[in-house]
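#struct-help
A.M.: can someone run this one for me? Single chain, 240 residues.
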Amino acid sequence: MRLLVVEDNDRLRTALAQGLTSRGFVVDVCPTGPEGAAMATYETYDCIVLDIMLPGMNGYDVLKRVRAHDPAVPVLMLTAKTGDLDETDAFDLGADDYVTKPFSFAVLVARINALLRRGRVTRVPVLQVGDLVLDTVSGRTSRHGVEIDLTTKERTLLEFLMVHEDEILTRTQIIDHCWDSVYEGSSNVVEVYIHYLRHKIDEPFGVRTLLTRRGAGYQLVAHQAEDASPEDEPPPQDRP
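D.P.: on it. Structure tokens below:
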């Protein structure tokens, strides 16, 4: 799940990014209203956490731009302001939830997860490619009914591949979706995680559905393709 946090307080922004990342989210952050509006309309997010009191453009105006661009993305307003009028304004403009500072981080995560579950009703809560199944709410993954134990990052990558079944996805597309916007490591991280994922979802079942398309990218198919290329990544050493 990819989140955008728009918050001008440096300490809180950093704490939220670290805390949410530790809970398995991919998190992008920005400190100003204009940056938040730009990122929210340029990138695709599963949920946006948006402060109201922001420099350059307040959260209400950011929310208006978000809703003009995407009426469906869940938005949780996060603010130090209190009062029924503020809450009403936020909901009238299209906010899905509202949390007042100071707040419990555990409660914030629970509210985000609740929004994600609600938001997924209009999407597909269970993804299936052939006999490979991923429950995007519980995270449970299985093939032939046999449960597969995946790390959070492996599950994020698999979900992206399943949503784009049969499409060839480039390294850049995968990094942009599955790693945060400030990732500056090697693009070899994609090959490493493709290797991990293939080792779990294909090899134990004697199939080859996660394909390397040389010079192009990676493709997840429902049934093994005759032109499946051999794995061309060297065995990874350490997890990045």
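A.M.: thanks! Residues 167 and 219 are 6 Å apart (CA to CA).
D.P.: also worth noting: The first strand starts at residue 2 and ends at 6.
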